[in-house]
Amino acid sequence: MAKKQVNPTRMELTRLKRKLVTATRGHKLLKDKRDELMRQFLELVRQNRTLREKVEAGLSASAKNFALARASMPAPMLDTALLAPGQKIELEAGERNVMSVRVPQFTYQTRSADENNMYSYGLSFTTADLDDAVKSLADVLPDLLQLAEIEKGCQLMAAEIEKTRRRVNALEHVMIPEMQENIKYITMKLDENERSTQIRLMKVKDMMLEKTYHYSERHLHPDIKEEQQV
Amino acid sequence: MYKIAAIGDKDSIYGFASVGMDIYPVDDGSNAARQLRNLAEGGYAVIYITEALYAQLGQEVDRYRELPLPAIIPIPGAVGNTGVGIAQVKKSVVQAVGSDIIFDDK
Interface pTM (ipTM) of the complex? Predict the structure, then answer.
């Protein structure tokens, strides 16, 4: 039985059939989109995992170096050394379109291109530990930015996959079966109507013939008995 | 032109200033939430946040999950790696696939 009340008319039937075609096509396309998104997502998430492990290891190492630097020189001096950073990152955020998911893409520029020019302090009052610490952090930086890009991409794609999966399921398990059922219901109702009309016409024809030729009365008449048997 | 920020306890993040990031030292979750909201609307594309604070923020961070920018990335702080970062990646996998198929070997 159809869940929704539908009008069993030919117009409704045509409309539903057209809708079913669209829904089936949409279902196929969304399913393809989901599969491709999933493939790319899994690839990206593997990358994300290895990169994260690398970055976390790098950051832990640099945190150790900073702790060492902090231990080997007075805190105010350290604060002064890092007070005015010589380096500045300028980040440009573009977009990459992955199956209509807009994934950010970062490109960055540092103010001073020279790698050895990243120390914001004079070397005379600071220890070499601080240099090491800053260097180790600067080394992690490209990976750190790439991690941001990839991890954001993963999050956005995961959300999109979830949405697409829901749409696919809704089409597959709710919309399409419902429409098929409604179409079946209308077809059967229309067939039934047609049959009933046909029967009515036959009945009317019989009645009209009866009225003109009086078959039933002839049946009782003995003269036409042979005629009727033929 | 976007900027990069780092939020966390001072010991964990003061080094990031040396590579050109803006640092915002905060100690507790509610201040971090306020700071995060300010930064997200203030032209920052990437916000690094220490795992300890990240764990406290919860819903505040989830709001930005589906927006293209900013990217909010947990990083291990001075206290060490607590596994929040990798759990975040896991969460994405579970959301997309329905179950964790990448990390279950660990």
Answer: 0.89
